[in-house]
Amino acid sequence: MEDRGVSYRFDFRRYHLPFQAPLRTAHGPWREREGVMVRLTDAQGNSGYGEAAPIPWFGTETVDEAESVCRGLGEHVTPETLASLPDRVACLKNALAAARRADDPELAARKPLGVAALLPAGRAALGKIGAKADAGFRIFKWKVGVGDADEELGLLDDVCATLPDGAKLRLDANGAWDRRQAERWLERCADRPVEFVEQPSFAKASEGASARRRTDDLLLGLAGDFPTPLALDESIANDQDVERWLGLGWPGVFVVKPALLADVEVAVARLSAARADVVFSSALETLVGARAALAAAFTWTGKPRALGFGVWPLFADSRFDGPYERPFLSGEDVARLNPETAWTALN
Fold first, then answer.
1. What is the 3-state secondary structure (H, E, C) of 95-157?
2. Are 133 and 152 in a shared domain?
3. Is 257 a catalytic residue?
4. pLDDT in tens, 182-206
């Protein structure tokens, strides 16, 4: 929907959507997705949709905060009102920007991008690799930092041995390791087919500024001491984090979840200008947020890395899923997603 500088009718719907199965992470089991869908309708009756899909333990706003701001907006909003929303509700600002953004007319024609297959935590990963390899996947993401550290480390060689020839493994620790654990893993990864290790350590905002600085220093030190690249994920929770890590000269990968950024276009432009190494990743949003996030990924002109969007089928109600898991995703697959389907399903 094109922004014509007029007043919009504003509607929103909060959602609670259970996953098909809980996702095991170092933060604990994740059983359902909560968020807020928004709709803006202009004077001509054209509607655009967006999704605020916060992840509070990353440091975003909560869903309650996003809903509270929505309730305060009233039935009609202007572009000036939307621009004045506080930075704290970055995910909501993202959703409202998506609802106003005109579709990319070239999206359907853009070249396909590779997708990483998401593996379950622990030994269950071994039983999933074969079928995904047969489907054509060559990049696999394995959740670690979930179970016993020694047991997981012992499984690494079994997982690597099960990969097809030429495949690469991404390890996602979700910030679970201390320095010694991270060093043990990185020593072991040095001669394994590991593409990168994602977020070995993380300090939550609630731990304070000093803990955050120590973790930043640890991550920078690990990145300089070991040959296996590191990637930031939880550390990139908002637009300010993008700027902060660019300023720190981060030498590794930026895992960017477009759904968490208030101004995706500006953040992507900054990363592009810095020639950053970027992976675009899902925030486990519905098809509404996924369409906007993937549209941003297809504008990237830097080094291509497999998308972190191999997450569907995800929801118990498949009407909210994005493109089903496949080794390559085309712009046409994204353009085909219809946000109104999910909006209507919330009735």
1. HHHHHHCCCCCCHHHCCCEEEEEEECCHHHHHHHHHHHHHCCCCEEEEECCCCCHHHHHHHHH
2. yes
3. yes
4. 999 999 999 999 999 999 999 987 8
pTM of the model: 0.94
Q: What is the H or E stretch that residue 88 is in?
A: none
Segment 235-290, tens digit of pLDDT: 999 999 999 999 999 999 999 999 999 999 999 999 999 999 999 999 999 999 99
Q: Which of 71, 100, 129 is the last residue of a domain?
A: 100
Same domain, 193 and 285: yes
Whether 340 and 307 share a structural domain? yes
> For the sheet containing 76-77, what is the strand order?
47-52, 28-41, 8-25, 76-77
Per-residue pLDDT at 219 exceeds 80: yes
* Of the candidates 330, 325, 328, the residue with the CA atom closest to the CA atom of residue 128: 325
Q: Which residues contact residue 40 at a Cβ distance below 8 angstroms, ignoring those fewer than 6 apart? A: 1, 8, 9, 10, 47, 48, 50, 77, 96, 99, 100
With cut-offs at 50, 70 and 90, classify the pLDDT of residue 152.
very high
Q: What is the CATH number of the domain that holds 326?
A: 3.20.20.120
Residue that finishes a domain, picked among 65, 84, 100: 100
Q: Are residues 209 and 326 in the same domain?
A: yes
Token pair recorded at residue 218: 């640890």
Do residues 153 and 299 both lie within one domain?
yes
Please check whether residue 3 lies inside any domain of the structure. Answer: no
Which residues span the domain enclosing 36?
A: 8-100
Structural domain tally of the chain? 2
Q: Hunting for tokens 């731990």 — which residue is that?
A: 207
Catalytic residue among 93, 132, 141, 143: 143
Query: Taking CA 133 as the corner, what is the angle to CA 128 and CA 137, rounded to the nearest 5 degrees?
Result: 110
User: Catalytic residue at 143?
Assistant: yes
* 149 and 28 fall within a common domain: no
Percent of the chain with pLDDT over 90: 90
Question: What is the DSSP secondary-structure string of 187-213?
Answer: HHHTTS-EEEEE-SB---GGG-HHHHH
User: What tokens were used for 304?
Assistant: 């291509």
